[in-house]
Amino acid sequence: MSITKNNGKTAQRVKIFILISCVDGKIDSAFEKISKINSVSQIQKTDGAYDLIITLEADSNEELKRTLMHEIRSIDDVKYTLTLRSSLDDEVLG
Question: What's the whole-model pTM score?
C-alpha cells in the first residue's frame, strides 16, 4: 500500500527520503500516523530490512529536520530511521 499526496505547491522544495523500521506488529499503525504528517508527500510499505519508505518535502532543510526529529522519530511505533538525501541537493541535512 502507498499514499502520494499532492500539496498543490509548485515552488522548489527540499526533499529527503526516510527508511523506517517499525516495532513488530506496528507497521499499519505507524503508516497511519506518518501519513497524516503534512511534510510527508509519499509513503510506501516495503519488504526487507525496513518497513516503510517515505518522502519528506518542505521549504527548508531546517523544516525537514524538525519534522524528522519531532514528528516521525517521536512516534512510539517507529524503532529507527535512516535518512537519504538526493545527490542533486545543494545542502546537506544536518
Answer: 0.79
